[in-house]
Design a protein that fits this description.
88 residues, mainly alpha, 2 helices, 2 strands
Length: 88
């Protein structure tokens, strides 16, 4: 996958949109898999969240930060998140 098309494999955010350009691994190197909102120092910041919880969290973010209608936000989240590496 080309760099500009990489998305966080936990939440689906394009890594190029991450202000930190990605999360950090346990050795403090940059993660090429997860964003800084999901992953820091080799750990998920929302450890223990369920797939359903992550979908709901993303729906709320899409509605508030992107002004997306709830049905559209939910459809987008359900199309993306279950297919990401973290949730398989």
């Amino acid at each position: 996958m080309e760099d500009q098309n990489k998305i966080c494999q936990s939440c689906g955010m394009p890594l190029k949109a991450d202000p930190n350009k990605g999360g950090t691994n346990a050795d403090h190197s940059m993660s090429e898999t997860y964003c800084s909102f999901c992953y820091k120092d080799g750990k998920f910041l929302d450890e223990g969240i369920t797939l359903e919880g992550k979908v709901e969290k993303n729906v709320q973010i899409a509605m508030t930060k992107m002004n997306m209608p709830e049905n559209e936000a939910r459809q987008m989240a359900m199309n993306i998140i279950p297919n990401l590496q973290r949730w398989k």
